[in-house]
Amino acid sequence: MSTDNTRRILKRCLLVVVASVAASPAFAQRGAMTVPRNLEQMVAGSADIVRGTVLSARVEKHPELSNLNTLVVTLKVHETLKGDAHGTYTFRQYLWDLRDARDAAGYYKGQEYVLLMNAPSRYGLTSPSGMEQGRFRVTRDARGQSVAVNGRGNALLMRGVAAELAKSGAVLSQDASGLVAKHQQGPIPADDLVRLIRELMLGRS
Description:
Elements: H1 3-23, H2 39-45, E1 48-61, E2 69-82, E3 88-95, H3 98-103, E4 112-117, E5 135-140, E6 146-149, H4 161-168, H5 174-182, E7 188-189, H6 190-204
Antiparallel strand pairs: 1-2, 1-4, 2-3, 4-5, 5-6, 6-7
């Protein structure tokens, strides 16, 4: 086989790989069109759920697919809600938007997050469940309370959760039930979010 034919075949294979990666849940953070998911769905679909602070975020080429820009993020883990992360948690995310490459998709050193993460693909790529929906930035409000909000302002986060729990027979605590019933959008106390995630996990066990 000639060198030109080999190159054409390799290029064609690479395009197929890129297309499959772009169509997977491990898609880019900014500008991706995603179906709305509620918290219960994201908790169920996540492989890892961690609360932690960003130690580093760097843009680099994929070690195998050299034409792909990726973001490698490492967090200091404060709490592991699902999965086996201890000490630190590192993930690699595909970047297709140049804006994400310029600002590390918003993962700044020292910033705290609650992340609901998909399982890595065969190429080691992952992303938050529902993209911006499964990435909760933790900040402090005017009263100094730690609050968490995702990329959609927590809109629709609780829609349908009560109905799904009723079908499964799971029972939440009074505080968690009140949060599910009353919250429509806007920041949620970070500790309340973590407790609700834990209860949703127990309800599925």
